[in-house]
Write a structure and sequence with these properties.
Elements (H helix, E strand, L loop, with lengths): L3 H7 L3 H5 L2 H9 L2 H20 L9 H4 L5 H16 L7 E2 L3 E3 L10 H12 L18 H11 L3 E5 L2 H13 L3 E5 L5 E2 L3 E2 H8 L2 E5 L7 H7 L4 E7 L15 H10 L4 E6 L17 H7 L3 E5 L10 E5 L1 H9 L1 H5 L4 H13 L3 H7 L1 H7 L2 H16 L5 E13 L8 E10 L5 H9 L5 E2 L1 E3 L2 E4 L9 H13 L1
Bound molecules: pyridoxal-5'-phosphate (PLP).
Length: 475
């Protein structure tokens, strides 16, 4: 191996690779350009590897025995071409037990919502036409009445996400004027949504009142002036303050706002429409409670606790909602027909709370009984034991999380399948194999143990999960 250049010369050219039967075959059913790219990239990866040996006096044994035959490289290129031809964004199995998982697409939709998307995707629809009069209608009308029914609000408007809802609300109500917020509520959600920054972008000036841990009603009153446009209350959805703390309740703040004829805007984040405490979960403020307590506008996400598509929902006073709808930015932040379809179908399920609990995946997953989780974990463990060698498998008690920055303190008791390879492969390698598998599986790794939480796995995914774990184990 004195001369790596000799090896470089042995590398087959692209044309040569493309004449290999395996690649000719791939070109029959995959886009030609992807097969070509795959061949080029495979050759270039080999070239790079060989160049790495260029300056070495004693190249590694593996370099001496490197096989550069076209058939070998073509096999690799074929595998790469298949990978390139597959979808980048794809379904996976969430075995983490984190129910609202932002990086994994937050939440799966109810089947009614999926059917509704399918229906408007396949057909023309009455998106912006009134079927009663034949005149032009508003896309918002499909959702407004339902949202008002469910929340007790006068009016509603839906935009792209809750960050957009807050931004648009502040811009419409307060650009060039002042908004008063408690210092204890200047939160960051998910790294990119920060109240002070959203506020600055909206053109409203942030007037901070109180301290990090305590804010009183008199703090708000002290800063009111002619240029005050609104009070903003932000639900600190992703963290909890304990100890020596004070926050002003919505009712109190609403009456102060009323006294000065200022609107009170409340950003509730998660969007809970049903009382969680009935299921042993910490109580979260309900949208309808904030409206009753006197908030003039409430904003929340469509894809957190609501269990619907990504959306930002604004409900509240009719005059304020129409101000928001008329704002230029409303057009830029408007939702598409798929979102409207999925949101309408999801909201309709809430008309009957029993249906909502059964049919909306986020609620089904949050309220599944521990006994069911135990039965499913034991069944998974048994099936996995039949497929894996050199493994320790046990079912242990554990905790699932709500996730998505919602209910950070909630600990949902669950049963986990804990897997530990005894020899041959490292747990971290299995995790990586699972991530790259088909379908990919995402799970928790804790002290060398792979933890599978049945809470976020549908029963019909179990066979695929077991196959994926078995495949990842054997690699
Ligand atoms: C999640 C959250 C947001 C951002 O909502 P998106 O729908 O992700 O844009 C804003 N405010 C609060 C309080 C939140 O919890």
């Amino acid at each position: 191996m004195s001369d790596y250049r000799a090896l470089l010369r042995e590398l087959p050219a692209v044309d040569r690779l493309l004449r290999e039967p395996v690649l000719i075959n791939k070109m029959q059913h995959l886009p030609r350009r992807l097969v070509l790219q795959a061949a080029q990239e495979t050759i270039s990866a080999y070239r790079q590897r060989l160049s790495g040996y260029a300056g070495l006096a004693h190249p590694p044994e593996s370099a001496v025995h490197i096989d550069l035959s076209p058939s070998i490289l073509a096999e690799e290129a074929a595998y790469l071409a298949e990978k390139k031809a597959g979808m980048n964004l794809k379904a996976l199995i969430n075995a983490t037990g984190i129910v609202i998982h932002t990086n994994l697409g937050r939440v799966p939709l109810a089947s009614k919502a999926i059917a509704a998307i399918n229906d408007v995707a396949n057909n023309y629809s009455n998106l912006e036409i009134s079927l009663d009069t034949g005149e032009r209608g508003s896309r918002q009308e499909h959702l407004e009445k339902l949202l008002c029914d469910l929340t007790g609000a006068e009016a509603a408007v839906v935009v792209n996400n809750n960050a957009a809802a807050v931004f648009l609300t502040l811009n419409a109500l307060a650009a060039g004027r002042e908004i008063v917020v408690s210092r204890g509520q200047l939160v960051e959600i998910g790294g990119s949504f920060r109240i002070p920054e959203i506020m600055a972008a909206s053109g409203a000036a942030l007037i901070e009142v109180g301290t990090t841990n305590k804010t009183y009603l008199k703090d708000y009153e002290a800063v009111v002036n002619d240029n005050t446009a609104a009070f903003l209350k932000v639900h600190t959805s992703n963290y909890h303050m304990i100890g020596f703390t004070a926050e002003v309740e919505t009712t109190e703040l609403a009456s102060l706002a009323n006294k000065y004829r200022l609107p009170l805007v409340e950003d509730l984040g998660s969007g809970v429409l049903m009382d969680l405490s009935a299921f042993g979960l910490p109580a979260e403020p309900l949208i309808q409670e904030s409206i009753t307590a006197g908030a003039d506008l409430v904003t929340f996400s469509g894809d957190k606790m609501l269990g619907g598509p990504q959306a930002g929902i604004i409900v509240g006073r009719g005059d304020l909602v129409s101000l928001i709808r008329k704002n230029q930015l409303a057009r830029a932040l408007r939702v598409d027909k798929f979102t409207i379809a999925a949101l309408e179908a999801t909201l309709r399920l809430y008309l009957d709370p029993k249906r909502a609990l059964q049919d909306i995946p986020v609620w089904r997953m949050l309220t599944v009984l521990p006994d069911d989780l135990q039965r499913r974990a034991e069944n998974l463990a048994e099936q996995l034991a039949g497929r894996l060698d050199s493994v320790s498998i046990e079912v242990i008690e554990g905790i699932s999380r709500v996730g998505g920055g919602a209910l950070p303190a909630a600990e949902l008791p669950t049963y986990l399948v804990a897997l530990k390879p005894l020899e041959g492969i490292a747990s971290s390698a299995v995790v990586a194999n699972l991530r790259r598998g088909q379908p990919p599986v995402i799970l928790r790794l804790q002290q060398d143990r792979l933890l599978i939480d049945p809470r976020t796995i549908r029963e019909e995914e179990e066979t695929a999960l077991i196959d994926a774990v078995a495949a990842a184990w054997q690699q």
